[in-house]
Amino acid sequence: MIKHIVMLRFKPGHDKQDNMNTFRDLILELPNHIPVIRKLELGINYSKSHNASDQVLVTHFDTVEDLELYRLHPQHLTVLGYLKKVVSEVRVVDFNDLLSSDPSD
Prior knowledge:
alpha+beta; Alpha-Beta Plaits; four-stranded antiparallel beta sheet; 3 helices
């Protein structure tokens, strides 16, 4: 199982919450267009740390090739185009969970 983690810090302003909601809506549509997505998790940060991101997305794929199909899919590229307008910082980690005891993970 390949996990793709994206941590986002949205630009401050009165429309920050609206931008986060729009991102959520765009993400929820992705599995309808990109069948290689095995699972999506999206969360809003509640930590008060100055190092914290605003939202985190965890996407699960069967293979690295599926992750690459996702990256290049036009629907995903639309989401990236939106994020470039509303996000001030992005952190990404892609990994294969070597410690998982569940073979389906």
